[in-house]
Specification:
Elements lengths: L1 H20 L7 H13 L5 H16 L5 H15 L6 H15 L4 H16 L5 H9 L1 H8 L1 H16 L4 H9 L1 H6 L3 H16 L4 H16 L4 H4 L1 E3 L5 E3 L6 H21 L1
Helix pairs in contact: 1-2, 1-3, 2-4, 3-5, 4-5, 5-6, 5-7, 7-10, 8-9, 10-13, 13-15
Amino acid sequence: EPTVRTELMEQIPPIAIFLQESRPKFPTAFFEYLMPIVVRYLTDVNNQVRKAGQEALLILLEQDLVAQSDIENKVCPILLDLSAPDSDDEYKVEAVNIICKMASMLSRTTVEHMLLPRFCELCSDGKLFQVRKICAANFGDVCNAVGQEATERLLIPKFFELCSDSVWGMRKACAECFMAVSYTTSPEVRRSKLSPLFISLISDTCRWVRQAAFQSLGPFISTFANPSSAGLYIREDGTLSIRPPAQDVNSNSCQPSNNVTVMSSSSNAA
């Protein structure tokens, strides 16, 4: 009965936390019994059961309850199978969504060696625009997960593809995450490659793409600033924030924020 399996999945995280806290008494219970169930339910025939399994997996990863060996030997292989070119469309969309959400929770080595090649393939998926849309929406998070070298070598070419995608929603998603992508690259790449690319988005034929680009203009410009002197930094969630200087906090800390707000307002008026 699918409802029973769904309910079971919802109970897995609290049980796993209990086993972790009581590890001397149950040293291998989670790895031997619970983790195989979570992995198996990622391919369940019932959509609701799969979603419950995916949510349970993300909670376990977020709580750092899954061993590195299980991630590399059990979780990643099944996600790679589900996101393969010949996989069922529904399974593929779900798998790429999980891959993108997992990227920020795993080690850089695991993401780069096991998931990044498949992510790059999915960015060019010509069959399902939903897959490309998920990749575009999470592009900044993946860049942040793998770092500057892999971003510039492997991801920037894919970002160029997505920024010129025939579906306007893809280009809009790229405009929205432009600051996060730029922050991961070197100043030279920002200047020589990303700046012309941003100009193409801000001049896009679609009104919604242009609006999203104008709203990202201030944050994108901020990535050119020296964080130590400008007081700008990127939080863990990928959002731009301001670290006010010790002196004259009230007058200085608001000015950059006001500039971004004015830029966004002018774009909306346009």
